[in-house]
Automatic annotation (TrEMBL):
It comes from the Bacteria. PANTHER family: GUANINE DEAMINASE. It comes from Paenibacillus lactis. The keyword Mitochondrion does not apply. Pfam families: Amidohydro_1 (PF01979). Catalyzes the hydrolytic deamination of guanine, producing xanthine and ammonia. Transmembrane segments: none annotated. InterPro entries: Amidohydro-rel, Guanine_deaminase, Metal-dep_hydrolase_composite, Metal_Hydrolase, Metallo-dep_hydrolases. This is Guanine deaminase. Belongs to the metallo-dependent hydrolases superfamily. ATZ/TRZ family. Keywords: Hydrolase, Metal-binding, Zinc. Its EC number is 3.5.4.3.
Length: 454
């Protein structure tokens, strides 16, 4: 009897709700041929013993060791794959200067497919090693190199959603790095969409094309309108940046006399499959438009500390039913780890709530009710990301993909401070959230396939 492709036994953590953690102790996770969690069986369930009897000792069975736990794989909603090559550098200047001084020259080098392969191979492997099983990527303006990134995701087993970036406005973009013209930008995007949809048929976990205007300042009206039409025609994901910094927010207001959100909506770019990065400066009506259209926010807390001139009011937008996930925003954010971004999301929200200027009286210093908990930040990195993409990922739950990371709290070189074998698992969960590093991630699985181990 081997009805299931695989059977796992162990304790898992997953979000029950945005504020609560579900702990399944010593459960069995039954994975079917499609890599989906078909059944989860509790120890007190009658079937538990017979399933163990049937699978134990076969190569379809894996039991976690003491000190090991399953977490859902992370969903990174905002990664600039080419910028991995400059991660950790150039964080000392404002967004506009950062783009023109460092980022555009780097991205222009991805016309060279060999250079692109070197960087893209490494960034996909690095994200997998950091527990990121699904990533929403900006590539560059180059169609071939963007397709190469999708192919690398496909072959390494990561669920990659990849966008060929559109920057078609000759007034706003340097001559050495932009689309040749608007019609070429749209034709390249359409060819890219078709090629990735073909590639997807060869994968188990799925890869997806994403319509990707870099942000409004880099695109013409005609380009933005054409991209909205392509997203509708092929029913694709859409990603861009929205209301990130004072400069970006102000630019769109000057050009369209409305906020980013409404301008993007006018071009057909706010859809259920849309994810907009940052969104720090959304006003209430913008957030309501996001909720109405199903558009999600990619919250990038580390990057925001450098480039967004503000802390996003996550709690306020969540209360308005806007879908929110987490993004590393490599390389505006220096870290490829969503663990690091979970921590920063909590820290930033605490600073927003309390305020940061000690010369102000306490009651004027902060924004009340802004803090989020570590459980909420974990939700953003997992279930919130899955919901943002409308995919069955980010939860350890029946009907979801077996996208998991195996966390080992007891590796000798980086043992977590757990001294009592009966320590409350909720405390263990929090220690993992705050202290885990890539070396604690022993295995990563996507859609039932092991894609990383150490
Ligand atoms: Zn970005």
């Amino acid at each position: 009897m081997s009805k299931y492709m695989q059977l796992f036994q162990g304790t898992s953590f997953s979000s029950k709700s945005p504020t609560e953690i579900q702990v399944l102790r010593d459960h069995l996770y039954c994975i079917n041929d499609d890599g989906m969690i078909e059944r989860i069986v509790a120890p007190e369930d009658a079937e538990y013993a017979s399933l163990l009897d049937a699978y134990q000792g076969t190569d379809k069975f894996q039991r976690l060791e003491a000190g090991q736990y399953f977490l859902p794989g992370f969903v990174d909603l905002h990664v600039h794959a080419p910028q991995w090559a400059q991660s950790g550098t150039a964080l000392d200047i404002p967004l506009y200067d950062w783009l023109n001084t460092y980022t555009f020259p780097l991205e222009s080098k991805f016309s060279d497919l060999e250079f692109a392969r070197t960087v893209y191979d490494d960034v996909v492997s690095t994200l997998l090693a950091n527990g990121t099983t699904t990533a929403l990527y900006f590539a560059t303006v180059h169609k071939e190199a963007s397709l190469l990134l999708a192919q690398i995701c496909a072959s390494k087993g990561q669920r990659g959603l990849v966008g060929k970036v559109v920057m078609d406005d000759p007034e706003q973009n340097p001559e050495y790095y932009r689309d040749a013209d608007t019609s070429t930008a749209l034709a390249d995007t359409e060819e890219f969409i078709i090629a990735v949809q073909e590639l997807a048929k060869t994968t188990k976990q799925g890869v997806y094309p994403v319509v990707t205007p870099r942000f409004i300042p880099s695109c013409t009206d005609e380009g933005l309108r054409g991209l909205g039409e392509l997203a509708a025609k092929y029913d694709t994901y859409v990603q861009s940046h929205c209301s990130e910094s004072d400069w970006a927010h102000g630019y769109v207001k000057n050009r369209f006399h409305k906020n980013d959100a409404f301008a993007l909506h006018d071009f057909g770019l706010l859809r259920d499959k849309s994810v907009m990065a940052h969104c720090n400066f959304l006003e209430d009506q913008d957030a309501e438009l996001f909720a109405d259209t199903g558009t999600a926010i990619a919250h990038c807390p580390i990057s925001n500390a450098y480039f967004a001139n503000s802390v996003i009011p996550v709690a306020r937008f969540h209360a308005k039913n806007v879908e929110i996930g987490l993004g590393s925003d490599i390389s505006g954010g220096f870290s490829p780890s969503l663990f690091d971004n979970i921590r920063q999301a909590v820290i930033s929200s605490r600073m927003l709530e309390d305020g940061v200027n000690p010369s102000l009286p306490a009651e004027d210093r902060g924004v009340p009710d802004s803090r989020i908990t570590i459980h909420q930040a974990f939700y953003l990195a997992t279930a919130g990301g899955g919901d943002s993409l409308s995919l069955p990922i980010g939860r350890i739950q029946e009907g979801y993909a077996w996208d998991v990371q195996v966390i080992d709290t007891s590796i000798p070189s980086a043992k977590l401070p757990i001294f009592d074998e009966h320590e409350d698992v909720h405390d263990i969960f929090q220690k993992i959230m705050y202290l885990a590093r890539p070396e604690h991630i022993r295995e990563v699985w996507v859609q039932g396939d092991k894609v990383h181990s150490r």
